[in-house]
Amino acid sequence: MRSNDENDELYDDGDSEELDEEFPLGDGTADAEATVSCPYCGEAVEITLDPGGGTHQDYVEDCEVCCQPWRVSVQYGLDGEAQVEVTALGE
Ligand SMILES: [Zn+2]
Predict the structure, then answer these.
(1) Which among 24, 46, 28, 27 is positioned nearest to 37, based on CA atoms?
(2) What pLDDT tens digit does each residue of the chain (91 aa) get?
């Protein structure tokens, strides 16, 4: 499951190891980042994903550029490809 060439500057050694067993995409084959367009400022922003978090994730993240809150929706396919949708959280 572990590769030798992992670079884990962003990897959190905390509790994510347990999740890997339930969700095999956590072994590094799944997309771990995505580029999205901010619904507020329109900038293309690269965000970090957490494949160990499950096949479907919804969370809130602030835009790095304009600091507005996004609702991020991540859906992993069986091939590990992430479909990421970002919508404005406001209103
Ligand atoms: Zn923005």
Answers:
(1) 46
(2) 555 555 555 555 555 555 555 555 656 688 999 999 999 999 999 999 999 999 999 999 999 999 999 999 999 998 899 999 999 997 6
Q: How far is the CA of 70 from the centre of ligand 1 (A)?
A: 9
How many A from CA of 5 to the centre of ligand 1? Answer: 33
Q: How many domains does the chain have?
A: 1
Alpha-carbon distance 5 to 34, whole Å? 21
**Is residue 19 situated within a structural domain?**
no
First to last CA, the chain: 43
84 domain residue, yes or no: yes
CA of 18 to the centre of ligand 1 (A): 33
User: Domain of 68?
Assistant: 32-88
Q: Is residue 6 part of a domain?
A: no
Q: What is the pTM of this model?
A: 0.68
